[in-house]
Amino acid sequence: MSESAYTPEYRNSWALLIGIDDYQADLPPLNTAAKGVRALADTLQTELGFKPEHIIVLENEAATQRAIRRAFTAPLSRANKVGPDDRVVIYFGGHGLTFDTAEGEVGCIAPHDIEPGFIDTAIPMDELTRLANRIHAKHVLFLLDACFSGFATTREASAGVERQVQDFLLRPARQVITAGTREQTVSDYWGPGGHSLFTGFLLEGLRGAAPAPGGVLRAFHLAGYLQDQVAQHSRSLQTPQYAALLGSQGGDFIFSVRDVSDLPDWLLALAHSADTTQRVFAVGQLYKLAEAEESRAQSAQALVHLQRMVESDADEMVRTSARSALRELLPVTTIVPVTRDKLFSTSAGLEVDEPEEGAEEAELAVTLLVTEGPASGQRLTVGAEPVTIGRTADNTLTFADAMTSRRHARIERQADGLWVTDLGSTNGTFVNGKRVEQPRRLEEGDRVLVGGSLLVVSFAPPDDAPVAGGEEPADRAIEEAEEPAGEWQEVEQVEAPPGAGSDARTAFDKNKRFLIPAAIALALCLMALCLLVLLSY
Prior knowledge:
Elements: E1 13-19, H1 33-48, E2 55-59, H2 65-76, E3 87-93, E4 96-101, E5 104-109, E6 123-124, H3 125-133, E7 139-145, H4 165-169, E8 173-178, H5 197-209, E9 216-218, H6 219-232, E10 241-244, E11 254-257, H7 265-271, H8 276-291, H9 296-312, H10 316-329, E12 365-372, E13 378-382, E14 387-390, E15 397-398, E16 409-414, E17 417-422, E18 429-431, E19 434-435, E20 440-442, E21 447-450, E22 453-460, H11 474-482, E23 488-490, H12 498-536
Parallel strand pairs: 1-2, 1-3, 3-7, 7-8, 14-15
Antiparallel strand pairs: 4-5, 5-6, 8-10, 9-11, 12-13, 12-22, 13-23, 14-16, 16-17, 17-20, 18-19, 18-21, 21-22
Helix pairs in contact: 1-5, 5-6, 7-8, 8-9, 8-10, 9-10
């Protein structure tokens, strides 16, 4: 269908929501998939105007192979139901499987009645892509909360300049946002509201937490929000992926167009001033307004003005300032690399990320010593959970200096060691003077610069390992046992070796009967001398 056949609006909104906690086969049960489907159905109705009769919900035993395929056929592929100016959301929460075939790995979603080991009982990703292209709607968006990576993308692209809503609505789009990459296990817990990480933040984003420049909430910015929030969560081991599927022609799925408020006249005057200094000052004021959560309507307008300054201001200093502000305010949306000639879809294993009580800590004790910056002289013991570093209070480590971004860096323990990741900070993260461009493994003695703070990595043997020089004093062992991991502690004072301290105490005990009388005699002599001096006057 040609672009001119579309109108700059949506006529109807449809949703197919699938959530499976319990499987007919012997697959690990999940806990939040069905709950997430019900919450998403409610959000689509109350927040985004979807009609209840246009939302198809398949939970647990209702989500069979036949039922899922039938829903794609009727009503979604019926031209008399879903029209060319409609939008369709397809959500799946459940297990993902990978089958090794002669054509390569084939990723599939697992319906309730799947038979593990038989690909004909699963629904492959490339089949979902074909089914989506049979839908007459101009915009189809997949939201996959399962162990998937990106699949079936059409071209390399970047966000580029913000296009008008009308332009997005006049072009077809087939897009997907998945919960993680092929190597990652997707969490079934830990998300807001008791949902999985992906679904919990998805619901919050749709309810207003995701950025909406100009008041327009679209799939591209929702994907960036999910990548930012899920990847940085302290319990997260996953990074959501975003891609355009075969059939996209430059459109974007739009969730809502929110009301916006005009900016104050004085701020508009500054932003359009002929004085470069005034426009740079306006960037700072727009940043503050965009960051304020209490006025989302004005925040959306502030983002638009910052983007215009990046694109069209004549002064490089103004453009750079505005670009830095946007980098802080708008999460960077990573687009999955593309392939035209081959559909690809892969899945992680069937692991379920369940909370475990009393889980073993890694053997090596890791300590971060702060040698420079606001927290100089303190240390942090790195436990099993990732350590986030930034300027805001929701980080594990908060450094209140202007050079530190709100979400600056993450340090975490993995199976193969300690790793540091820069989280898109403005001023960068450096290890031994070299900027961190991708996750980097840390070694003993490495110096990590985060904003204006310098941290030194220190590894120590396990608590139960023998310590050189004999057994540690009991009082020190008790003190260390009482120190909670992951909390700030003062740097320990350097202690003398146990043997040396013991020898010194023994020598003092042996000689104290001679030293004390000698000290008394010396004091009496001094007193007598002073008395003689006084009498001589």
